[in-house]
Amino acid sequence: MNKNDRQLQAEMENIVADEGVVTRFRLYSGPMAKIVVAIAVIWALFQIYVSSFGIMDAVKARAWFFGFLAILIFLWIPARKNEGKTRRLPTVWDWICVVATIMAIGFLLFNYDDYVETGVHIQADYWFGGLGILIAFEAARRAAGNVMTILAALFLLYNFFGQYLPGTFGIGNLGYERVVDTMWWGAQGIFGTVIGVAATYIFLFILFGAFLRRSGFIDFINDLALAVAGRSAGGPAKVAVIGSGFMGMINGSGVANASSVGTVTIPLMKKAGFKPHFAGAVEAVAGTGGVIAPPIMGAASFVMAESLGVPYRTIMLAAVIPAIFYFFMCFLSVHFEAKKLGIEGMPRNRLPNIWSVLKQRGHLLIPVVVIVAFLVSGTTPLYAAVWAMLSIVVVSWFRKETRMGLREILEALAEGAKGVLTVGAACAIVGVIIGTISLTSIGLTFGNNILELAGNHLFLIAFFTMIICIILGMGVPVTASYVITATIAAPLLAKMGVPLLVAHMFAFFFAALSDITPPVALAAMASAGIAKAPFFKVALTAVKLGAIGFIIPYFFLYNPLLLFMGGSMMNTIIAAIIGLIGVVALSAGFANWLLIKTNIVQRLMLIAAGLLMIDPHYVTDLIGFVLLVSVYIWQKKKRNNEDQSTGLESNSFTALTKNSGEDGR
Q1: Is there a contact between 66 and 106 (Cβ–Cβ < 8 Å)?
Q2: Torsion angle, CA of 482/487/488/489, rounded to 10 degrees?
Q3: 216 Rama class: left (phi>0) / alpha (psi -120 to 50) / beta
Q4: How far is 610 from 581, CA to CA, in rounded Å?
Q5: How far is the C-alpha of 304 from the C-alpha of 298, rounded, in Å?
Q6: What's 471-507 look like in SS3?
Q7: Which DSSP symbol is given to 202?
Q8: Phi and psi at residue 597, to the nearest 5°
Q9: Given CA atoms 237, 243, 248, 249 in this order, what sign does their dihedral have?
Q10: Residue 665 burial class via C-beta count within 10 angstroms: exposed 0-12, middle 13-18, buried 19 and up
Q11: Is this model's pTM higher than 0.85 or not?
Q12: Is the Cβ–Cβ distance between 40 and 418 less than 8 Å?
């Protein structure tokens, strides 16, 4: 990485860090560095054992997870943003937090069996429980950011001060002991289902992504994408769509994609001729799309499967068509923009050969095939992730340049543990929110108020749900955003007769898209830092490129055929094919280009055609198709006329030049 690249990376890290997303860790030297890495490796191995082979009480397993999580956060992540990254030792405050974590978790683990057996608390339970809650907030403040922490604090305070609120939001006097019992000692607070998913599914799949990166998988995907799409119009941007989308399926974070893949793709796009804000938007949209794209999707998909009690492959199948629509629109938007700007593909001599790429590193696709095969066969995602990680190590030995030795394996374990800190802290603190909803019934109260305001109209309830998802998703990791919104909003949609899976998918989509939705839009912010472009310009462009993501949830809400529900397989396939044609029209309308630049009437016709064809009904499909064909014929005729006019002008100019030459002679 040259000096300019390092400067761009540093600027991006500073911008993202200001919004509470951790991209900076302390860089210890000497014995302390080895100690912290050793703790991370031990934690990773412990979680692999507990998640796949070991047997342990659920609350105890989650307590161990939280203990390791908090200790590593206090050792690795500074308490203040302006604190130096490079230190030989942690600060005094860090050590106090570490000791407090050991005390609180140690007390819980030592006394939990007695509490379960008797059902009676001693006074010390409440004091150590209160200490544990404070630890969770400090860990979340450092790792998950201020937005998430403040939101959880407001919910926690509601337990104590809600009794003073008038009207429907007023609650009874709960008291300190009851709150601590729910938040710390129960299975509905910090050690509830959400952190349980983080300790198992999320941890193992982030670890899987770390093993892929250490084996050189990212470089392989980028080279493969360059070989496949590099020569077409706007090739570098299409590479970003393919590469970021693929990596997003694994790490489940648009921000993480922008921070890693974006450092390669964004400069390529700018060099090709795309404007900086457009390059940043493409990266943000593609990376965010990975969260909703099977087979792995984002971590929130595992939470959904767990909370709904359905096999993970059901979630995968439901997300297939919406994800295809999303990436197809992003890809087409890039293509139309390139055509509009006259940006051609990269020259052949600057691109890798696809067969050489596959020959050198194609074996790295085997672990992805392994994990997909396990997931589709119905094997639990936990076993699938473990076997896929083992397969990475095995296949890495097929060629010398990808071979993972003991050092690389230990580095992957430590990197995976580090990658869990942000989402793990968010999942822990969101337990306070879920605990409050359970303890006070504020979710039911809030839902009833929305129902009353919407007047039992499904569209209005869906619209309010979207707004809630986007607002609560501002600056919050996707998993935490989904859990909060699904807890409050999904029951509202279910009351209106919407199938529960559809309601959760609706909340999931908008929770994921909050990463590109202003005013926060963390993925857009990270991309803007790398692209050196105005943040709001990047975010607004990202919303335009990812518009299909905001539209399609409303369609599957009314007709879940696009989720492989409520119809035959043939009907679903037909709806998907016609919908893809509709995405072409919609992309052209938003890009202001089909064969040539569109006028306002053509643009409105294209957008209308796209919306009508995505809606899986034969009448709307027919009307939309007629509109699209009409615009196509209109534009083709106009382009032919322009070509003829240009040809005549060219011929006239040639003739004039020729005659002038003859006169001169």
Answers
A1: no
A2: 60
A3: left
A4: 8
A5: 10
A6: HHCCCCCHHHHHHHHHHHHHHHHHHCCCCHHHHHHHH
A7: I
A8: -65, 140
A9: positive
A10: exposed
A11: no
A12: yes
What is the Cα–Cα distance from 663 to 665, expressed in whole angstroms? 5
- 582 membership: H or E segment, kind and range: helix 569-591
What are the structure tokens assigned to 252, written together? 């489940």
Question: Measured between alpha carbons, how far is 627 from 621 in angstroms, rounded to an integer?
Answer: 10
Tell the residue number behind the tokens 């992957």, with chain if given.
412
Closest to 281 (Cα-Cα) out of 228, 344, 334, 346: 334
DSSP states of 434-451? HHHHHHH-HHHHHHHHHH
Q: DSSP 3-state assignment of 103?
A: helix
Q: In 3D, which of 524, 475, 509, 517 has the Cα closest to residue 283?
A: 524
SS3 labels along 138-197: HHHHHHCCHHHHHHHHHHHHHHHHHHHCCHHHCCCCCCHHHHHHHHHHCCCCCCCHHHHH
Q: How many residues does the structure list for the chain? A: 665
Q: Of the candidates 531, 527, 66, which has an alpha carbon nearest to the alpha carbon of residue 257?
A: 527
Query: CA 85 → CA 35, 96, 116, 172, distances in Å?
Result: 17, 19, 43, 46
With contact defined as beta carbons under 8 Å apart, do 60 and 50 qualify?
no
Give the number of other CB atoms < 10 A from CB of residue 365: 15
Mean pLDDT by groups of 10 residues along the chain of 665 residues: 42 38 69 92 93 84 95 92 71 95 95 87 92 95 86 91 84 88 89 86 85 84 79 77 72 64 78 87 86 79 84 88 91 88 78 84 87 80 86 90 89 91 87 87 76 78 82 72 79 84 89 82 81 88 89 87 84 90 92 89 93 87 93 91 67 51 47
| Cis bond before residue 477 (omega within 30° of 0) | no
Q: Is the dihedral of CA 355, 357, 361, 363 positive or negative?
A: negative
